[in-house]
Amino acid sequence: MISRLAEFDISATNQSMRILDMTRELEVIHTCAATLGWDQETYLPPAAHEHRANQLAWLSAKGHEMQTSDEWRAALEDAEDKNPGTDPKLTANLRELRRQFDRATKLPVELVTRASKCSSMAKHAWAMAREASDFSLFSSSLDELVEIAREKADHLGYPDEPYDALLDSYERATSTATVAKLFQSIEPELRTIAASAVERSKQHAVKLPQGPYPIEDQKRFNQAVAESIGFDFKAGRIDTTTHPFCTTLGPRDVRLTTRYDQQDFTSSLFGILHEAGHGMYEQGLNPDDFGVPSGSAVSLGIHESQSRLWENHVGRSDSFWELWFPKACKVFPQLGSMQFDSFLSYIHRAAYTPIRVEADESTYDLHILLRFSIERRLVTGELSVDDVPAAWNELFKLSFGFEPENDRVGCLQDIHWSMGGLGYFPTYTLGNLHAAQLFAAAKRDLDVAMGIVQGNYAPLLRWLRHEVHNHGATLDPADLIQSATGSKPGSCDYLVHLKNRYL
Amino acid sequence: MISRLAEFDISATNQSMRILDMTRELEVIHTCAATLGWDQETYLPPAAHEHRANQLAWLSAKGHEMQTSDEWRAALEDAEDKNPGTDPKLTANLRELRRQFDRATKLPVELVTRASKCSSMAKHAWAMAREASDFSLFSSSLDELVEIAREKADHLGYPDEPYDALLDSYERATSTATVAKLFQSIEPELRTIAASAVERSKQHAVKLPQGPYPIEDQKRFNQAVAESIGFDFKAGRIDTTTHPFCTTLGPRDVRLTTRYDQQDFTSSLFGILHEAGHGMYEQGLNPDDFGVPSGSAVSLGIHESQSRLWENHVGRSDSFWELWFPKACKVFPQLGSMQFDSFLSYIHRAAYTPIRVEADESTYDLHILLRFSIERRLVTGELSVDDVPAAWNELFKLSFGFEPENDRVGCLQDIHWSMGGLGYFPTYTLGNLHAAQLFAAAKRDLDVAMGIVQGNYAPLLRWLRHEVHNHGATLDPADLIQSATGSKPGSCDYLVHLKNRYL
Predict the structure, then answer these.
(1) Closest to B55 (Cβ–Cβ): which among A32, A39, A58?
(2) Class of the CATH domain delimited by B176-502
(3) Are residues A5 and B232, on separate chains, in Cβ contact within 8 Å?
(4) What's this model's pTM, rounded to 2 decimal places?
(5) Which of A144, A271, A409, B122 could make an SS bond with B141 (beta carbons 3.0 to 4.6 A apart)?
């Protein structure tokens, strides 16, 4: 029997390993919490939420206590002092650990514990509010979450506005102003593309043959697709939840979830392609460095680039369905009545839907821009929690031309805020931009391009492993994109991609 | 939002509460481990076992560290000093906590960590060995587990033989010699009853109408039955595992598992009745005292009495099936071709099967007597691990007249040893004895007796809540039986029950 905790050997000197061993131990605590969090979303009985909140609060406090202890500080300083600077990975790991330590020590343990408990209970309140389409059931929780977010920002400090500090925990080395400027710059073209795509879909409406597409068949089909693009089921699995997600419970334990629509098998399938993209990033990180920055994902924007790449650039491509459409017809016989071209039009259809996770590529980013605007103002205090439904509906009408039918399909649709995830949403659009830039670069490799034409995605996954996954968090997101694609992060490849597909 | 950790108020003095708060915190750690353990059995991907072992080892070490700390000792001593002795529950709690502390401080943290890691990996090795029916894949793990058990016994101390110390952790206030004597005293009658029951079943063989009994239908039927006898699904659930079990992840979170045989719906159903019996005991403990002895199960023998009572005394009774047989016929139409009397003969059939969990009531205890004999000799060193398969087969032949076909259905069938659970098996037969004694006593209550005749088990559950569950671990098992039934634990009611049903 081997304990991974004891066999880590990244550095030459014994003394400087202590901080890395402690980092790995901290990751054991984090993955315990991740396991309890996964269970909370998938299988937890309804009466058990309060105790689960206590468990997560305890783990969160233990982790924070460890990460902010004098022992941790001493081990980190010791490693920094003794780092000969000859090993770039060790140097990058220590730089990242220093950044994390400085962030963590700014938050009092009381606040961390309160945040963890609040989000555990808030997730439950959100689920009930969403079910009942009654924002009032969630508003006091959201009030507390926003207050906690502001307190966090105050402790962390920020250059311009409190949202900077929140954004930084999901996407390092950027700022609210940078993101706002980028979003403003692409918004006009996004609106044009969306309007045109929606108009075209209206004129050439295509329907999927009538269901049911039995859930058990969808599960089998999704599993086959996920396996074929490279998701490893020996080190992962798929379960069912209200809101799809991907979570990592260990170096070889990546859990995906999705939800099923009996009338449309593509809904769960694209959900799985998306989450499997996240999952393959996690599975592609170096398991020997698990928990250490060099074996960790760098940012949510880069994470999202992986899910979007597999969902949209691979999963919605013609060549992908040349392979999978005949197989889908065997699993779901009613599909046989559909022309292949019609099916492609169906999966490229565009519409102004109220639900973000059901939105098509051409309209998706408009949902993000709306959320970014609302949560930014919530945090500054320009917008009060009670005014969220009205603000949401007003902004939605400006972008989409109508108001959501109710809060269930409006401001209650997403789980993120209930988890305390203010500052998270912009990373979705950053991910779209990165995905297009990475996919365009990957296709300049002949093997990758050939593979894609033939429906063989192993060369693409190898390219991503080499250019993205292997780096872990040793490069900043912008540097990682530069290193992988030869250019700074930009919006050209994404806008070209959208225009090619939707105009 | 309420934190249970902060609102405990069992005692009058503030000072003496510290130890109870710490006990509750320790239970948070234990239930984190229980959640990870449940996931390990139900949903963990195959490549993830090593990391799960690290997680469980970390939690186990944290728990042991806390439970054996100077702070714990000081808090316990402080509470003992200040206990006015006027509150019997507080006195019982402190007595039990003292007993647990004395046991825990005898085990070095290194041994506890090693035991946890070893059993995590051993469970995996056992599952593979069982699958391949190859004892050699498990023998080195078992070797280590036995060595650890001996070391534990040496640290804990024992009056006569090391097995005493192991048995005491499952069934307090008894001894190996007492159990051995009790088992020897009932063995001749058990053999007579078994032989006669098996012979009668041979002469009047009854078969269940041919399957399949679809698994999804079994799940629905089992759920309805479990709900009707009082298992609360708001505070629990059922999943599927190789080996059925019940585990508690929180005061309102009790998880049952079972396995399905498509040819025989009664297999999973009696599994669920059994596990639901355990589960209703856990759900009947005082949630406000969760983690504290007064809110904890007292022993495995008493636990098993609850599962056996619901499985055998309720679930295999004529009156139970007068209610449920017509419902079963609706769910499984092929049952309609079977006479009710034949169905009763079917569920009362007896046979010498190699598998303990498939054994009928009349032969079950012979399986336990065999395991008790083997593990007792393993621990003393009279029997070596390599000789377990041969010893198993020899003993089995003596009791049942034939040898198991292979180790898969022989010495590899049970999960217990792989979890380090040496000393556990005798509690099954103790549970059978207690179940019969409790059921006989309960039926002396008119409401209970009337309810049973009418298939209404609410009065029986109320009686058990009052006489057994409510006491938690404040009484020793023997005293609990005496208090509930008016007599010391004995074998009369059990032998009478078996003779009535099987002779």
Answers:
(1) A32
(2) mainly alpha
(3) no
(4) 0.87
(5) B122
